[in-house]
């Protein structure tokens, strides 16, 4: 009986943890959307047939979600942000590294420079063709 009460206390602590971290509010308010690959399929089914959507959710998403909740429940050190833990384990994109924006900017700059160099190369080739004969022996005009 004491083991049952300890278990119940642990469940109650976990429920309060989910409540404080905003997981319960997010799920019950309808703000939560399933992560890819479920999003497109979920939206398609939801718009077509409400019953099918409920069945799909019950069969495919719910067991996965429950498995993630069990993993969170069994975590010895509970993460500060339970929603991020759930999103990460459901396959949603995790937090981006701090240097992502710098890398995106660098990529855009390098793509622009590459484009400029390709244009310069094209121009130089056309100028070179004026002074060198073409491969078949005729002089270019």
From TrEMBL:
**Signal sequence extent:** none
Coiled coil regions, renumbered to chain: 100-127
Check the record and name the InterPro entries matching this protein.
AMY1
Q: In which compartments does the protein localize?
A: Nucleus
State the Gene Ontology terms under molecular function: transcription coactivator activity
Instruction: Report keywords, A-Z.
Output: Coiled coil, Membrane, Nucleus, Transmembrane, Transmembrane helix
Q: Which domain of life is it from?
A: Eukaryota
Q: What is this protein called?
A: MYC binding protein
């Amino acid at each position: 009986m004491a083991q049952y009460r300890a278990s119940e206390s642990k469940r109650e602590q976990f429920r309060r943890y989910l409540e404080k971290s905003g997981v319960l509010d997010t799920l019950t308010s309808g703000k939560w959307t399933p992560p890819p690959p479920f999003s497109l399929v979920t939206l398609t089914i939801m718009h077509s047939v409400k019953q099918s959507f409920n069945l799909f959710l019950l069969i495919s998403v719910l067991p996965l979600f429950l498995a993630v909740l069990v993993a969170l429940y069994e975590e010895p050190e509970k993460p500060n942000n339970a929603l991020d833990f759930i999103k990460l384990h459901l396959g949603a994109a995790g937090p981006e590294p701090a240097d992502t924006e710098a890398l995106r900017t660098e990529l855009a700059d390098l793509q622009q420079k590459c484009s400029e160099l390709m244009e310069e190369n094209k121009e130089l080739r056309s100028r070179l063709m004026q002074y060198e004969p073409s491969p078949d022996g005729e002089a270019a005009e």
